[in-house]
Amino acid sequence: MGERTLDIDHVCKRFGGNVALDNVTFEVRPGELFGFVGSNGAGKTTTMRIVLGVLAADSGVVRFDGTPISHEIRTRIGYMPEERGLYPKMKVLDQLVYLAQLHGMTANDAHRSAEAWIERLDLAERRGDPVDKLSLGNQQRVQLAAALVHEPDVLVLDEPFSGLDPLAVDVMSQVLRDKAATGVPVVFSSHQLDLVERLCDRVGIIRSGRIVACGSVDELTAEAGTRLTVSVPGAPTGWAEGLPGVRVVGDNGTGTVLELAPGTDDQSVLSAALAAGPVREFTRHRPSLTELFRSAVGEGAAR
After folding, report:
1. Phi, psi (rounded to 5 degrees) for 29
2. What share of the chain is helix, strand, coil (3-state, %, to 5)?
3. N or C: which end of the chain has fewer CB within 10 A?
4. DSSP string, 153-173
5. In the listed set 216, 246, 266, which residue is the last one of a domain according to the structure?
6. Residue 63: which H helix or E strand, with range?
C-alpha cells in the first residue's frame, strides 16, 4: 500500500437490524480521482462519514498514509458534505478564514488561502456577502472552498457536483484534477455517471452496503463483456438465440443487440449472422459506465 493512500479496509456498520455497510474495502491512491457511485441509500454517505470519523465503524479500519484515522489526521482531510454545512449568516471570506484557522492555520495563512480560493472559484465579488444571500451554485463553490482552504492532504466530497451549472461543473472538475495532480487522493460520490466516467481514474460501485465492482472504467467495461449490434434484415426471428456465450439484449432500431460473455469469439457470431442472411451491420461497443451501473445495481435502481 503506497504512501498517502486512503485505505478503507473491511468496514462494517449496522443501524439496528439494518446492515448499512458490509465489508466495504477499497483504496484511493495518491493523485487519484476515485468515483464512488451507488443508488440512494446504498452506503456512500455512511462510508464517507466513517472516513471522517463522524461515525464509528462496527468493525474494520480506515487508514491514511498507513495510520488509522485519528483526530490529527482528520484535520488534514478536506470534506464536502452532501447536506451543506456552512454558517448561513456569516460572510464568505470570514467563514473561510475561520474554517482554515479551525484546521490549524495561522491567521495570515488562513487569509492568504481564503483569498486565493475565492479568486480561483470566481467568488471575488461575493467575498463580503453572507452565504444565505448567494445562489445555490455559489454556495456550492463556497462549500468547495471550505473543503480546500486548509490545503488538505486528502479530499472526500459527497455529491460535489449536484446543483451546479455546466460552467461551475467545469471549474469544479479542473480544481479536483489540479488537486489530484499534486498527489492528493480525491474520492467523490456522484449520480452524474457521465461525469464520473470522464473524470475518474477508478470507480467503485456500491449496492446495499457492498462493493460490487471496483476498477478503472476500462477494466470494468471490459469485464462486463462486449455488446454487438448486428443487422441481418432477412434473418429468421431468433437466429441469435442459443449461440454459446451470447445473450440477446433486444433491438435498437438498427439491428439486434447482443451481449457477449467475456472470452466469446465475435467471429462465431458473424458466421451465424452470415448463415442467417446478408449482414448489413456488425458493430461492437463497450458499455458506458451508466449501462454498467444499471447492470451492477439492477435495472431501475440508477437515478
Report:
1. -85, 160
2. 35, 25, 35
3. C
4. SEEEEESTTTT--HHHHHHHH
5. 216
6. strand 59-64
